[in-house]
UniProtKB/TrEMBL annotation:
Pfam families: Acetyltransf_3. InterPro entries: Acyl_CoA_acyltransferase, GNAT_dom, Ribosomal_N-acetyltransferase. Signal peptide: none annotated. This is GNAT family N-acetyltransferase. Keywords: Acyltransferase, Transferase.
Length: 221
């Protein structure tokens, strides 16, 4: 029996004219871990408290890679149809550039997903952030039948806010949090299905089998 038969979401792939999102196999996963460990925040940029994505950001190799892997595997280990988080590797022109996450709680009832992402420093500011978000929104709205996609960013995270603004998200309040010992506002954003302006031209989703839908709490087509 193949792994994908037991754990069908590993077969999910989204392709758009700009980017390919897929669940990394073992070999690619090591590459993703190395990209994460090489850094996702520019030390010259003081506009952020660094968003603690997976807890690997402050340590050296190989501990950084190991922490990334723990974070990655924990998402699969904790997976339930009622609460899941899927980490998709992103390739542009065959080059691994980052990770696009999509998650949901009680998707079968709420039809709401939330997303997060990071891009290796060497590949930032080239439009990949927007391309990855467009691709995952295609999965959410066209593939899974989501009614809403949520996201959030620190009020100071200009690139992340710019990606959301470019894709038509609307403000949905703020949450005050503590980050690196400082009080910081997180801006919550939401994109309703009716406001999704994504084009499906040249986009395809594969692996959204009945088994994958069941794991995601997504309706059958
Ligand atoms: C947020 C992130 C994914 C954006 O990806 P990216 O590929 O760099 O972004 P893009 O090239 O698609 O640019 C998106 C927009 O941000 C703007 N932008 C990018 N970097 C910027 C910067 N350092 N300062 C200000 N604006 C910036 C771009 O000009 C573009 O704006 P536009 O649509 O008005 O042209 C990436 O910067 C990243 O991985 N950051 C570290 C991790 C992180 O913060 N993740 C999000 C947590 S909420």
């Amino acid at each position: 029996m193949e792994f994908v038969e037991v754990w069908p979401v590993v077969g999910l792939q989204v392709r758009t004219p700009d980017v390919e999102l897929f669940v990394p196999g073992e070999g690619t996963l090591v590459e993703v871990a190395r990209l994460a460990a090489a850094g996702i925040y520019d030390p010259q940029n003081h506009y952020l408290p660094r968003t603690p994505v997976g807890g690997w950001e402050d340590c050296e190799s190989p501990e950084a890679e190991r922490r990334f892997l723990r974070y990655y595997w924990a998402a699969f280990a904790d997976w339930r149809p009622e609460r899941w988080n899927l980490m998709l590797a992103a390739k542009v022109g065959g080059v691994l550039v980052g990770v696009q996450e999509i998650g949901a709680q009680d998707f079968a009832v709420t039809r709401v997903v939330s997303t997060g992402s990071w891009i290796g420093r060497a590949y930032q500011r080239a439009g990949h952030g927007k391309a990855m978000r467009r691709a995952v929104l295609h999965l959410a709205f066209a593939g899974l039948g989501a009614e809403r996609a949520d996201t959030a960013a620190w009020a100071t995270n200009e690139p992340s806010l710019a990606v959301s603004a470019a894709l038509g998200y609307q403000p949905n309040g703020t949450t005050t949090r503590a980050a690196e010992g400082r009080r910081v506002d997180q801006i919550n954003l939401t994109l309703r299905r009716a406001d999704w302006r994504g084009s499906s031209d040249g986009c395809s989703i594969t692996g959204l089998s009945p088994g994958a839908r069941a794991m995601l709490g997504a309706p059958m087509p």
